[in-house]
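Record type: ASSEMBLY
Status: queued
Input:
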Amino acid sequence: MASVGVNGAHERVSAAVLIIGDEILSGRTQDTNLRDIARYLGTFGVDVAEARVAPDIIEEIVAALNALRARYDYVITTGGIGPTHDDITADAVAAAFDTELYEHPEILAMMQARWGGELNAARRRMARVPIGGELVKNPVQGPPGFAIGNVFVLAGVPQIMRGMLEDVGPRLRTGAVTISRTVRVEGTGEGAIAAPLEAVAKAHPAMSLGSYPFFGPEGYGSNLVLRGRDAAEVAATIAELIAALTAAGIANVSEVSPS
Amino acid sequence: MASVGVNGAHERVSAAVLIIGDEILSGRTQDTNLRDIARYLGTFGVDVAEARVAPDIIEEIVAALNALRARYDYVITTGGIGPTHDDITADAVAAAFDTELYEHPEILAMMQARWGGELNAARRRMARVPIGGELVKNPVQGPPGFAIGNVFVLAGVPQIMRGMLEDVGPRLRTGAVTISRTVRVEGTGEGAIAAPLEAVAKAHPAMSLGSYPFFGPEGYGSNLVLRGRDAAEVAATIAELIAALTAAGIANVSEVSPS
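Status: finished
Output:
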């Protein structure tokens, strides 16, 4: 199913989703990440061709990951990258790629700035990245995800997963160009943002609008990400969204410069 | 992972779930069947050990079904048993079992009573069952599902799927029922919880301990879920975990009442 040859506008680009976690298989937690990833990748012309849910057992994760990464252009994993003993995704990815984990200096520096003397062994687990991996930004809360080969390793918490996805799309090989712009709202929660955001989203069904709330010692708010393929509609939607937020009495709204 | 030998109180009985349908992989439809099946089977002591989502492509369904039915005690499939051209689950199951489909007289009689002269070719597709299969009652609406070997073939529509499940449980060889209890920690992140949790997990290898963090405008913390089959050990582990968290200086620890 992997695409072959020169990348053309109509070439199929495929992906698989690997959801990791006993809590999904036990029915305790309702997965929504598959749906969100499929919709997100769809705006980049990337089709999810298969999905699997694996338990928190390293051999199972390695086997599923190796089957999927050999067959599809991309694999997105969610879950198992936290600080507890059952968070073994990084170990499994390193094993699948026959490499080792190391503490990434950039993550370690972030964590030292955040935790200082409270940076314990459990938290340091989250700084581990396979040799050869690159970071995937986390705009929400906590340490980044990572990418290695054709595999992207994201958090399981849906809000964080969706935020990390924004750093996946721009790295995908895709025929049609998607334009992404971000409006940042500081000091207002999603509860007040939801109504104006939804009104603008309904007026532009061809656009994808997402809200990625952040909070922490430095403050709270949300990053509103708009994606579409028509530059004029993206520009119009940005303007409408800022106007709608302002009309709703929301302050500290500004467009983030493209990175 | 399949259990072996005589069914004992602590034998593990395993199942896999195979969700069939392009609409799940495209993100158009949010699957809820995996969660519902996992919870239902859990009450019979049957653990869902793996799940897959396959597209509406016959070779893909056959390959996934054969991999799963060889490995687990049971496989539950959902979706693809309607009247349209993309409903190919029955064909795929027959191919996987190297058998043929035939029009089941009981289903045909139900349909003739329901549709009379309007029983067209598309509707008759839903009367097809593999030779050697048995019916699974549909108490909701429409034709029944079927079972063959260790595979149960159910509808994709959640209400119908749940109704059909009621005719699956009584046919299962059941394992020991898993007891699940939850300790909720509010206002403390996983980084501080990890060490005491891991110490308790290591002391009880027969138990499953998982940490499922939550956060949002209303606060943050984690639900620590303990699962095991021995009631006395579950109770002892809960007590040890609460003591270990308290000894680590963590406040706002309480057991959640079982639902």
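Annotation: The first strand of chain A starts at residue 13 and ends at 20.
Annotation: The mean pLDDT of chain A is 89.
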